[in-house]
Amino acid sequence: MAFSKDSRRAKIRTRIRARVKGTDLKPRLSVFRSNKQIYAQIIDDNQGVTLASASSNVMKEAQNIAKIEQARIIGKTIAERAKAAGIEEVVFDRGGYLYHGRVKSLAEAAREAGLKF
Protein backbone atom coordinates (compact mmCIF):
# COMPACT_ATOMS: atom_id res chain seq x y z
CA MET A 1 0.00 0.00 0.00
CA ALA A 2 1.44 3.35 -1.01
CA PHE A 3 1.36 6.28 1.39
CA SER A 4 0.98 9.88 0.46
CA LYS A 5 3.95 12.16 1.16
CA ASP A 6 2.08 13.86 4.01
CA SER A 7 1.07 10.65 5.78
CA ARG A 8 4.56 9.19 5.36
CA ARG A 9 6.11 12.37 6.82
CA ALA A 10 3.59 12.32 9.69
CA LYS A 11 4.62 8.76 10.62
CA ILE A 12 8.32 9.64 10.50
CA ARG A 13 7.68 12.82 12.50
CA THR A 14 5.85 10.82 15.19
CA ARG A 15 8.80 8.42 15.50
CA ILE A 16 11.26 11.32 15.76
CA ARG A 17 9.17 13.17 18.34
CA ALA A 18 8.96 10.02 20.51
CA ARG A 19 12.72 10.28 21.01
CA VAL A 20 13.42 14.02 20.69
CA LYS A 21 12.24 16.16 23.59
CA GLY A 22 13.16 19.74 24.30
CA THR A 23 13.97 20.69 27.88
CA ASP A 24 14.87 23.98 29.51
CA LEU A 25 18.57 23.02 29.34
CA LYS A 26 18.44 21.64 25.77
CA PRO A 27 15.42 22.97 23.89
CA ARG A 28 14.29 21.53 20.56
CA LEU A 29 15.16 23.20 17.24
CA SER A 30 12.17 22.37 15.07
CA VAL A 31 12.19 22.85 11.29
CA PHE A 32 9.21 23.18 8.96
CA ARG A 33 9.56 23.71 5.26
CA SER A 34 6.87 24.43 2.73
CA ASN A 35 7.34 24.64 -1.01
CA LYS A 36 8.22 28.33 -0.81
CA GLN A 37 9.33 29.10 2.77
CA ILE A 38 11.31 27.60 5.63
CA TYR A 39 10.63 28.10 9.33
CA ALA A 40 12.67 27.29 12.44
CA GLN A 41 11.77 27.61 16.08
CA ILE A 42 13.38 26.71 19.37
CA ILE A 43 10.87 25.12 21.73
CA ASP A 44 10.90 24.17 25.41
CA ASP A 45 8.54 21.16 25.46
CA ASN A 46 8.34 21.03 29.27
CA GLN A 47 6.68 24.44 29.45
CA GLY A 48 5.25 24.37 25.93
CA VAL A 49 6.72 27.71 24.88
CA THR A 50 8.64 28.94 21.85
CA LEU A 51 11.88 30.58 22.94
CA ALA A 52 13.07 31.87 19.54
CA SER A 53 11.90 31.68 15.95
CA ALA A 54 12.88 32.71 12.43
CA SER A 55 11.21 32.32 9.07
CA SER A 56 11.98 33.23 5.49
CA ASN A 57 8.61 34.86 4.85
CA VAL A 58 9.16 37.76 7.28
CA MET A 59 12.88 38.40 6.73
CA LYS A 60 13.60 40.94 4.00
CA GLU A 61 17.10 39.60 3.27
CA ALA A 62 15.68 36.11 2.65
CA GLN A 63 13.37 37.29 -0.14
CA ASN A 64 14.03 36.70 -3.85
CA ILE A 65 17.03 34.39 -3.42
CA ALA A 66 17.55 30.66 -3.82
CA LYS A 67 15.83 28.42 -1.26
CA ILE A 68 19.11 26.90 -0.06
CA GLU A 69 20.43 30.40 0.63
CA GLN A 70 17.18 31.26 2.43
CA ALA A 71 17.67 28.24 4.67
CA ARG A 72 21.26 29.27 5.37
CA ILE A 73 20.13 32.77 6.41
CA ILE A 74 17.39 31.36 8.65
CA GLY A 75 19.87 28.94 10.28
CA LYS A 76 22.25 31.77 11.06
CA THR A 77 19.42 33.97 12.35
CA ILE A 78 17.95 31.30 14.62
CA ALA A 79 21.40 30.66 16.10
CA GLU A 80 21.88 34.38 16.79
CA ARG A 81 18.43 34.65 18.40
CA ALA A 82 19.13 31.56 20.50
CA LYS A 83 22.40 33.03 21.74
CA ALA A 84 20.56 36.26 22.62
CA ALA A 85 18.08 34.18 24.64
CA GLY A 86 20.96 32.43 26.45
CA ILE A 87 20.65 29.11 24.60
CA GLU A 88 23.91 27.39 23.65
CA GLU A 89 22.81 23.81 22.98
CA VAL A 90 19.71 22.32 21.32
CA VAL A 91 18.37 19.01 20.03
CA PHE A 92 17.56 18.98 16.32
CA ASP A 93 14.08 18.00 15.13
CA ARG A 94 14.07 17.65 11.35
CA GLY A 95 10.29 17.32 11.36
CA GLY A 96 10.08 14.18 9.25
CA TYR A 97 12.06 15.69 6.38
CA LEU A 98 15.21 14.09 5.05
CA TYR A 99 18.45 15.62 6.33
CA HIS A 100 19.24 16.96 2.88
CA GLY A 101 18.93 20.18 0.93
CA ARG A 102 17.28 23.05 2.80
CA VAL A 103 17.06 21.21 6.14
CA LYS A 104 20.75 20.33 6.01
CA SER A 105 21.67 23.87 4.95
CA LEU A 106 19.75 25.36 7.88
CA ALA A 107 21.35 22.97 10.38
CA GLU A 108 24.89 23.56 9.11
CA ALA A 109 24.45 27.35 9.18
CA ALA A 110 23.17 27.17 12.76
CA ARG A 111 26.19 25.08 13.74
CA GLU A 112 28.58 27.50 12.04
CA ALA A 113 26.95 30.39 13.93
CA GLY A 114 27.79 28.64 17.21
CA LEU A 115 24.74 26.57 18.12
CA LYS A 116 25.60 23.08 19.38
CA PHE A 117 23.50 19.99 18.61
Overview of this protein structure:
The chain is of the alpha+beta class and 117 residues long. Helices cover 38% and strands 20% of the residues. The protein has one domain (5-112): Nucleotidyltransferase, domain 5 (2-Layer Sandwich), CATH 3.30.420.100. It contains three helices and four strands. The radius of gyration is 14 Å and the shape is globular. The relative contact order is 0.21.
Structural class assignment: alpha+beta
Number of helices: 3
Q: Would you tell me the overall average pLDDT?
A: 94
How would you describe the shape?
Answer: globular
The largest sheet has its strands arranged as: 3-2-1-4
Can you name the CATH architecture? 2-Layer Sandwich
Rg on CA atoms, Å: 14 Å
- CATH topology heading: Nucleotidyltransferase, domain 5
Binned, the helix content reads 25-40%
The parts where pLDDT drops under 50 for at least 5 residues are: none
DSSP strand content? 15-25%
Number of strands: 4
> How is the main sheet built?
4 strands, mixed
Order of helices and strands: HEEEHEH
Number of domains: 1
Secondary structure layout:
Blueprint: H1 5-19, E1 28-33, E2 38-44, E3 49-55, H2 67-84, E4 91-93, H3 102-112
Parallel strand pairs: 1-4
Antiparallel strand pairs: 1-2, 2-3
For this entry, give a set of tags.
single chain, 117 residues, alpha+beta, Nucleotidyltransferase, domain 5, four-stranded mixed sheet, 38% helix
How would you sum up this structure in a few lines?
The chain is of the alpha+beta class. The chain is 38% helix and 20% strand. The protein has one domain (5-112): 2-Layer Sandwich (Nucleotidyltransferase, domain 5).
